[in-house]
Amino acid sequence: MIKQLILYLLPALFLFVVATTHAEYAPSKAVYDVTSSDPLDLTNILDRVSLLQNLYGNNSFDSKIVIVIHEGTIPIFAKTKAEYSGLMQRAKSLTFGEIIEFRLCITSAKLQGYTANDFHEFVAMVPMADAEIIMLQNNGYAYLR
């Protein structure tokens, strides 16, 4: 009986400890380099970005998260790709807190046959992903993939 009670309560105790134990992180700046053509990879990035935004308390004065989109991720952000509309709604919703921005490499897009008008309005166009990432890192952004 006691053994069963322990086995029953142990997972609940573990979840309680995990839920109530957290480190304090000061708001900061991060740039995510996103290149994968797999929508599941983008979903995982959006999950991580959302968690980081919440961890920073949606503090737009001291934190900023920029997602730089290029290479294989470009087509996912095209307006004509209806199969990704739910993913794009989620991405757009992350921009409402003013901490998260999406920036898309127009050079990479043009090489794939797209123009700036082919993408959702919440995505900013930048001339070159690599140069954008370097500029952000020079301005104190931590690099994440």
Give a brief outline of the structure.
The chain has 145 residues and is an alpha/beta fold.
Structure, described:
With 145 residues, this protein is of the alpha/beta class. The chain has a single domain, classed as Hypothetical Protein Ychn, Chain: A (3-Layer(aba) Sandwich), CATH 3.40.1260.10. It is 43% helix and 17% strand. The chain contains 5 helices and 5 strands. It has helices at 2-20, 39-55, 85-94, 106-111, 129-138; strands spanning 29-34, 64-69, 100-105, 123-126, 142-144. It has a 5-stranded parallel beta sheet, sandwiched between helices. α2 packs parallel to α3. The longest helix has 19 residues, at 2-20. It is globular and about 45 Å long.
The percent range for strand residues is: 15-25%
The CATH architecture is 3-Layer(aba) Sandwich
Q: Which CATH C-level class is it?
A: Alpha Beta
* CATH overall fold name: Hypothetical Protein Ychn, Chain: A
What proportion of the residues is helical, as a percent range? Answer: 40-55%
Spatial order of the strands forming the largest sheet: 4-3-2-1-5
